[in-house]
Design a protein that fits this description.
Layout (H helix, E strand, L loop, with lengths): L1 H30 L3 H7 L13 H16 L9 H20 L4 H13 L3 H14 L4 H13 L6 H15 L2 H13 L1 H11 L4 H17 L3
């Protein structure tokens, strides 16, 4: 009887310790160094940009990274502090997709970080994996399109193929059409590519796209 009691006591303590460990991990995004701080200091502790096991915890850090990474351009590649922050995000995103290869947004963050670090092959691989793992997530597709358009010369054939799929998906949705219409007006080089895709859509969706172009021009939303 005494041995049974001791056994269950040990089990309960182990479960409590495990729960505490999980809880501690989930609190990491709220207490660990975040991107704005790391961006300024350029120095990282081991738990910087840390996250827990839940998808919410991971997404929180990935969004933090993505917003920060988008603030950098090609000129920042010579900024050591900036690239240190981007590299830390790339490492975190790589860790997430290693354990959760279906995390489309983490793949996107990895792509955004990789291209700014000059890792072109990793950029292309990450873009295509993001598209394959989240083809119907419109908000991710929109960010993916923007990323590829900004670094189009570095896109390889598979990336361009996945990019075409994303453009077609956005052109078939209400919010996507409005976004594409704005880009159509502001970027002349984009017009030929999206026009070729829109021409393959049903007449109703083609009319919706044209209507949004006219609306954006009328409202000056460029």
């Amino acid at each position: 009887m005494k041995k049974t009691y001791i056994f269950f006591s040990v089990v309960c303590l182990a479960l409590a310790a495990g729960s505490l460990h999980v809880l501690s991990g989930e609190l990491e995004p709220f207490v660990a160094e975040r991107f704005p701080d790391a961006k300024i200091s350029g120095a990282f502790s081991a738990d910087a940009l840390a996250h827990g096991m839940s998808s919410y915890s991971k997404e929180m850090i990935m969004k933090d990274c993505f917003v920060g990474i988008r603030g950098y351009n090609k000129a920042d590649i010579y900024n050591i502090k900036a690239m240190s922050a981007v590299e830390k995000c790339r490492i975190r995103a790589s860790g997430i997709v290693k354990t959760t290869p279906t995390d489309s947004f983490a793949w996107l963050v990895r792509a955004a970080a990789s291209i700014r670090l000059g890792k072109v092959e990793e950029f292309n691989q990450s873009v295509t994996n993001s598209q394959m793992s989240g083809p119907n997530e419109q908000w991710i597709a929109r960010h993916r399109v923007e990323l590829v358009e900004n670094f189009l010369p570095q896109a390889d054939a598979p990336t361009l193929a996945s990019h075409t799929i994303d453009l077609g998906s956005l052109a078939s949705s209400g919010r996507g059409v409005r976004y594409l219409a704005g880009r159509y007006i502001s970027n002349p080089d984009f017009r030929e590519r999206i026009t070729a895709i829109v021409e393959t859509l049903p007449p109703k969706e083609q009319r919706a796209f044209l209507a949004n172009i006219k609306r954006v021009m009328r409202e000056g939303e460029i």
